[in-house]
């Protein structure tokens, strides 16, 4: 039986349309999951247009649902377990997922919030870890109103860092002080003291400005480039006491980190802000809102009923 999915179609608005795809056939180390919720990432919108995901292939990376068949090799959760996964081709009613790419969803966490964790949460967790997050460090998070940003602010604050959240406009400050930001700035206005860590999801001139604020020994993690603007470094900007600008990408199975994030969310130590929720026949609406920077936090979609 085919399953409904959102697939890449370069001729469609937002380069995505609903379609029937073949029922997935799991490999020996994969479980079959019936998907109840998915979340949309800015990267999905880029993937749909860039050709990185071929036409006709299923889009998406973030899904939550219930295991309907355990892995044949005995790894991973049993049938009936609620799970969250970070996996390619997530936007389908049923998916085959590597057992190492998912985590069990604790009873206290609802599936919509679980689905909002994978890409944004794992990017925040791993980039902070790579930057050497520690108590007392001054951490600047750009694009703090977005998916990665909101998680990065909370995780850094939880670790005892001094967190500076940067947003694009006053309305986008909403909820960030409550999330643990010690300072919430529009752009980098008023920030003069050096920072030890930058988690940057914006790129462009703001990345250059953030680099200039980075203290010797500091780490700037270039996680994303939501601005789409070029970054021009003035002469000698990269000459001086050692500090690093590191490229970042989520690499390798995310199951262990998903378990950490789901555990924190379940115990109320990590708030999952869902700024848009609806069925995936409203994909265009969600994509436009995300692109237009009108979603505070994450967009979560549920499979639409069969036509
Ligand atoms: N490397 C990886 O593995 C990885 C993983 C996850 C995400 N990413 C990338 O990281 C970036 C952030 O991802 P996300 O999921 O947090 O995205 P998001 O939810 O859309 O948030 C992006 C934030 O960037 C800010 N921004 C500043 N200038 C912008 C502009 N010109 N256009 C749009 N947004 C602008 C917006 O904040 P204001 O509205 O307050 O300005 C927005 O909240 C994206 O580039 C994404 O592709 C990479």
From TrEMBL:
Family matches, as Pfam families: ADH_N, ADH_zinc_N
UniProt-listed SMART domains: PKS_ER
InterPro entries: ADH-like_C (IPR013149), ADH-like_N (IPR013154), ER (IPR020843), GroES-like_sf (IPR011032), NAD(P)-bd_dom_sf (IPR036291), Zn-ADH-like_protein (IPR051397)
SUPFAM superfamilies for this protein: GroES-like, NAD(P)-binding Rossmann-fold domains
Domain Enoyl reductase (ER): 11-301
Coiled coil: none
Name of the protein this chain belongs to: Zinc-binding dehydrogenase
